[in-house]
């Protein structure tokens, strides 16, 4: 089990927000993090994007149509929501709040726009950027996928430049040169000592 600051039910868990450019390996790092520490609450984002091969509804994302997504926005069900590469993404508010209230460290994997919204909504959240070892490495990852049209790849690269330029807005940066090491570094940031001690 994760060591959290426990009192008599007064533990306050840390909310960590992970962001980084497309192709940096967020899915691989999170899969390894799940293996290392299954007690962490991983928020499942809602998206209007179509599933990629191997993605499972309700596990990787909750896939919905645009109409359903808009209904959720109007009902105030999202902690944050944003548009990215022509698709909409949102973090359901209630499961995150329930996990934190129960004393579980929670992790959100969201885009830069959403991370900025969470910074406003939950100032205590720790923002972590997952960065590539080099720009060339990221380009190779994106062009090597072969699952998207070249125009889409070029648009993702342009967005990636903007995201990496926002590094100073984040509290920490984890470089994904090795998936296992990156996951371990992220885990240490999530459950390590707080600045405001016990």
TrEMBL record:
Keywords: ATP-binding, Cytoplasm, Kinase, Nucleotide-binding, Transferase. Its EC number is 2.7.4.8. Its main location: cytoplasm. ATP binds at residues 20-27. CDD domains: GMPK (cd00071). Residues 13-191 form the Guanylate kinase-like domain. NCBIfam families: guanyl_kin (TIGR03263). Belongs to the guanylate kinase family. Essential for recycling GMP and indirectly, cGMP. This is Guanylate kinase. The gene is gmk.
């Amino acid at each position: 089990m994760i060591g959290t600051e426990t009192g008599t039910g007064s533990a306050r868990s840390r909310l960590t927000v992970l962001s980084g450019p497309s192709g940096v390996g967020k899915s691989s790092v999170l899969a390894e993090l799940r293996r290392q520490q299954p007690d962490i609450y991983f928020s499942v984002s809602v998206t209007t994007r179509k599933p990629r091969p191997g993605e499972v509804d309700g596990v990787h994302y909750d896939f919905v149509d645009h109409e359903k997504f808009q209904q959720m926005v109007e009902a105030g069900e999202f902690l944050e929501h944003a548009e990215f590469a022509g698709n909409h993404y949102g973090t359901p508010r209630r499961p995150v709040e329930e996990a934190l209230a129960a004393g579980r460290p929670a992790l959100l994997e969201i885009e830069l726009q959403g991370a900025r919204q969470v910074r406003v909504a939950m100032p205590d959240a720790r923002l972590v950027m997952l960065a590539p070892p080099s720009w060339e490495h990221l380009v190779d990852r994106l062009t090597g996928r072969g699952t998207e049209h070249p125009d889409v790849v070029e648009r993702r690269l342009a967005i990636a430049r903007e995201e990496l330029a926002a590094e100073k807005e984040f509290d920490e940066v984890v470089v994904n040169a090795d998936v296992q090491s990156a996951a371990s570094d992220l885990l240490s940031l999530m459950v390590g000592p707080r600045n405001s001690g016990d």
